[in-house]
Amino acid sequence: MPRSFDTIASAYAFLERISFGPYLQRARCYGLAQTEKPIQRALLLGDGNGKLALEILKRYPKCRIVSIDLSSAMQDEARRRVKAHFGETPWNYHLTCADARKCAFSMDGFDFIGLHFFLDCFSDEDCDMLLEKCTLALKPGGTLSFADFNIPTKQPMRVFGWALIKALYFSFRLTTGLKTQRLPKLK
Fold first, then answer.
1. 115-136 pLDDT tens trace
2. Per-residue pLDDT tens for 58-84?
3. How far apart are CA 63 and CA 110, in angstroms?
4. I need a labelling partner for 150 at 20 to 30 A (CA). Which of 164, 166, 172, 176 fits?
5. How many structural domains compose the chain?
6. Is the CB of residue 130 less than 8 Å from the CB of residue 98?
């Protein structure tokens, strides 16, 4: 069986918490605070264990969410997380286990699209293609929320950031088989 994020799904929330504390979740939720209108339809790519989906459902209980992730084990974690909060999986939370690069998104159909700590798993070309698909799927005036790692430009933090990114890619290559080894250069 090929390695994937399935191999670390049950430990992912713990690993995130001990590695980065609350900062990744704050970055995921930042885009929610920037939306001017209530979110009615959201597309989440690579939401993994459902941390952003849960926040959206808490704030906008009638929002229809489509969450696409390649890891079925991460989606199981997402279902558990949402079900633990609501007592059941809400009717408006739809999880699709698929490769987002191969999915067709509704044209002009979403008022919020979340890409958080997701694009760093892809090549530059794949990122460009995914961003183009997301742009076409976003309603006029909608929010494309993006968060990812970045290497600082000034020393000494640049060396620390570079080492951290290298360590993250190395650990994900070992545990999940992730082939990408550097942050993408987005256009």
1. 999 999 999 999 999 999 999 9
2. 999 999 999 999 999 999 999 999 999
3. 10
4. 176
5. 1
6. no
